[in-house]
Amino acid sequence: MEAEHEADLIRQAQRGSVSAFNELVLRYEALLFNVALRILGDAAAAAEAAQEAFLSAFTHITDFHGGSFKHWLLRIVTNACYNALRYTQRRPALSLDQPLGEDSAETLGDVTPAPGETPEEVALRHDLGRLIAQAVLALPVEQRVVLVLCDVHGFSYEDVAEITRTALGTVKSRLSRARAKLRDKLLAEAELLESGMRLEHERGDANSV
Amino acid sequence: MSEETPTVFDADDALISAWVDGRLSEAERAGFEARLSREPELRRRALATRVVVQQARRLPQVAPPRHFFIQPTAAAQPKPDAPTPRRSAQRFMRWAAALMAAAFVSLLMVDALRPYETLPPAQPAMLVQPMATPPEASLPDAQERGGAAEPSMQALAAPKEAQTAPTMPPPAAPAPLHPLRVGAGLALALALVLTLLAWRR
Question: Measuring CA to CA, which residue among A30, A18, A31, A32 is closest to residue A61?
Answer without folding.
Answer: A18
